[in-house]
Amino acid sequence: MARVVVTNRIPAEGLAALRAEHEVIAWEHEECISRAECLELVKGADGILTLLTEKVDAEFLDAAGPQLKVVANVAVGYNNVDVPACEARGVVATNTPRVLTETTADTAFGLMLMVTRRFGEGERVIRSQTPWQWGMFYLLGMGLQGKTVGIVGMGQIGVAMARRAKAFGMSVVYADDYDPPAAALEGLDARKVTLDELLRVSDVVSLHCPYLPSTHHLLSTEQFALMKRTAFVVNSARGPIIDEAALVAALEAGEIAGAGLDVFENEPAVHPGLLSMENVVLLPHLGSATVETRTAMAELAAANCLNVLRGEAPITPVTH
Questions:
Q1: Catalytic annotation on 285?
Q2: Is 238 a catalytic residue?
């Protein structure tokens, strides 16, 4: 029987699958585990389930010990995992793609609707009991029909976002070094363009690329200057893809019309300049936050861990 450590709370279904085969030590407090507590907890682990709140680096791996076989990250992104450090120690790293595709695309589309139609502003008016009166020009927003969405990163979530946009009568352009399978693009009439062209022609720019060194501050001062003054940016991917200080400056200068953000550069901190802006929608990283999706993520991470501990291939390994 192996020792499996779970570094933060996960749905019970994932824990049950692990406990059916192994000894499980799980952090079950509502507050996130501290770094010191995490390094202590993982000692002697054969398998570890981590969340994006844990930094899996050389220090973490060395604290666990040489018997460690697998780190199963309960997220599709794995920028919190030092994959080369895992490979150097013979540790398999896995993630949880596919199971959160539709939910995350729903979140991105919801952000787009909220910021373009000014729904966040409207709700704040009601909740604050600010006097209001219906009028032809009151809280006018931008309709989506006939507009262009520019999708940065045409992976599974990007394609799912494109399907939603197409259903709302939008045109789709995308920028990506990767070419999706032709079947995934069927019926979308999606046009591949450079990032600069995407920024120039899009009414909404939606980010769905992974966070890598090459995508750090992918959108910054120069890129915001290329966008239409009437355009919006939506980020449900990873916070540091956007230079938040540059975003605040662009919004203050009226270079772009607004932003919808589910993720932040220094999460959970948010640039203070964003907090008072009415044309910005802010969510606390809710992209995959449905009961069904979070359960599926936990179950997939557990299955990855169990496969490796059985000497079998993981279902969704991370390749570097």
A1: yes
A2: yes
